[in-house]
Each structure stands twice: as structure tokens, then as C-alpha cells.
Amino acid sequence: MADCPAPGAKPFTAPVAGGTAVSGVQLGNAKRAVVLSYEWGGSPCDWSGVATELVARGYRVALWEYGTLTGLDRVKELQAVVNQVRAAGATEVVLVGGSVGGCVSMIGGSMITPAVSGVAVLSCASWYDVDHRMPTTPLAAKLRVPTLYLAGDRDSLPVAEVRKDFGAVPAKDKKLVVVPGSTAHGVELLEGTEAAAAKAALFAFLDRVSR
């Protein structure tokens, strides 16, 4: 996290049940919060630009680094971060992530207690975790909180797989946004010339579910 410091960032360390503590930073001090989870091989810094925008829009933001847990156990780390954010004063929490971070967020949406206010999933479908290759569709079928799926229709992740997972989500409040012509994956959907539609959808979703 020292690689992408931001003005006013507050470092934290969160104890994890059954694992080692995870570290991160919180930005802002609003009651409504967004927890951002990053792509495989990436870092929390990949989301620093989005985090800055969210703080300017009136959100508290948590960026965090994955610890030692893998597979479904990684949700315990996400739970620890959510606990930390709530202890700091957040009353509404939305999970947002890209690629494997999107999968972690999606799974966390059905496992974290108390339930979060919503989940935004960028570029996650087919399988979760590079090592475990766990099918995602049965996990998506457990998600009942408000849900937003974002994907590029020319991403290497087939959009048909995204539609399959989205179709399995039982939440009544759900939306899928596919960006035409976009090869972007994960947080890249919110960057560059093709980002307007995806970013507008994400911000509208966050504003609606975390009033």
C-alpha cells in the first residue's frame, strides 16, 4: 500500500479468523463505504484512481491487500476488511471488484454478515481462483443482495459466461451492463475512452443502494 499513498489515507490492519491479518488503507470518512478488490497479479494501487473519484463523490473507500488464504477462505479476509470499515463508522458497505476481486466480492455478497448493501462484479465468470478453478455459477446462484455485473463484449472472458452467471443470480435487484466493443477487463472497464458507460452504471448503482 506504500506504493500508492493518497492524502488522508488511514492505514489499517484487520485480524482474520483462521488466517493472518490483512492490511489496507481507508480514504474518506463517510457513512457509506465501498470496499475495492483487485485483479489476479495486480495490486490495490490499480484502483487508486477510482478510489479518489469515489471519495470525491462522498464515499469512504477501503483498499486492501490479499493475505495468505485462498479459495473460498479468502472471503474471511474480505469479511475482516468489512468489519474494519464498519468499526470505523460505515453504516452502508458495497463490495466492488475486478476479475478475481470481482469473484471474491460476488462470493462475499452471499457470505459476509451482516449482509452488505450491494455488490458490483467486473469481469468475473466461469471459474474463480487461478489455483482452484472453482466454478462461479453455483456461487452466483447464492447472491441475493442488489447486484451489478459489468463486462466488455470483446474481453478474453466470454460475455456468454458472464450472462450465464448473471442469469443464475437470484437477487430481484440486479443489472448487467455489457460495454460494446470493449476488450477491457476488470478495473480497465472504468478507465480510458470506453469507460463512460461502465463508470456511469457503477456510480448510479452505488448511489442507489447506499443512500
UniProtKB/TrEMBL annotation:
It comes from the Bacteria. SUPFAM superfamilies: alpha/beta-Hydrolases. It comes from Kribbella sp. HUAS MG21. This is Alpha/beta hydrolase.
